[in-house]
Amino acid sequence: MTRSRTAAVLAVAAALPALLTGCAADGRGAGPAGTTAAQATAPSSDPTGSAGRGATAGASGPATRDASAARPVRSPAKPVRVPAGVTAGYAVVDVTTGRTVAQRQAHHRFRSASVVKILIATDYLERHRGTIPAGDMALLTPMLRGSDDDAATALWRRGGQGEIVRRMARRIGLTETSAPPAAKPGFWGYTAISAADIALVYRYLLRRAEPRVRDFVLGNLRKASQCARDGFDQFFGIPRAVPRPWAIKQGWSGYGAVPPIKCTRARATSDRIGAVTMGGNPVDFGRPVLHTTGVIGDRLIMVVLTLQPSGASFTQSAERVTKLARDLYLSVA
Q1: Is the model's pLDDT at 59 over the cut of 50?
Q2: Could you say which of 71, 134, 163, 228 would form a disulfide bridge with 234 (CB–CB 3.0 to 4.6 Å)?
């Protein structure tokens, strides 16, 4: 055999393993069933069911990629214990990947209480361009930081009441959020929400909203005051359960007008109309609710919505929600 023929045979023999395994010289050839090497190593499914929700959140905007998204996704956390007598819906989302890493009854609907103020503020900012008038700033800032009810009512009426919720639901892709019952159009706190939808609202602010909207809303939520304008202590749940930094929007309803520990003069009233069925998914407007929601650092979105036992005190409810938020954080941290 000549030297040239010998060289040719050796070259073919060297290439044979790569041809048999389907691997190209650059390492990006087809794997089993025609998949690429990258596809073959990617997760084949989303065990939390969050893929569809994430797709909804980003349907109208480009996908955001982050270097940290290349990190392996940890297994979904096991459900944490919910106190007896409490109905809870929660969702924890990894900000960088959009994956839901913990959830329980995430699609159960609750009345929003003050959590809807995030939608009121976001809707206002997206409809108004330019400098915010001083009078409007005097409504938006205390509404977000101190959960001012009078400010929320003024902006709610000016924005078309339930139209605010419908506009934001269409824009963000919320499927379980709806305006208050027709009999209570002025009661913004009777907006129906779910943990999954509120997680989408935070993801929208972080990933899709204009920077001026994102910075204003989340900037004020980072400066939330311990004492709300109605005199209730709003540092339950996330603020007492997890380390700073965080940006929070809390919600409570059904505890009367006088808080157990009064920080400022209370002016809130308590209105109850019982359970109402909306689209086949009942929303309880009778039992007290206590919600803690927000962004933890630059890593997690946490939404914990709870329906507390009838007659529960604010102090007892706050302790239960704080423990639930702490257990949930420790399960994913």
Answers
A1: no
A2: 228
Closest C-alpha to 122, from 212, 57, 15, 183? 212
The model's pTM? 0.75
Q: Smallest Cα–Cα separation from 250: which of 329, 181, 332, 148?
A: 148
> Is the CB of residue 193 less than 8 Å from the CB of residue 109?
yes
pLDDT score at 257: 77
Helix axis angle, 162-172 to 117-127, nearest 10°: 80
pLDDT of residue 14: 45
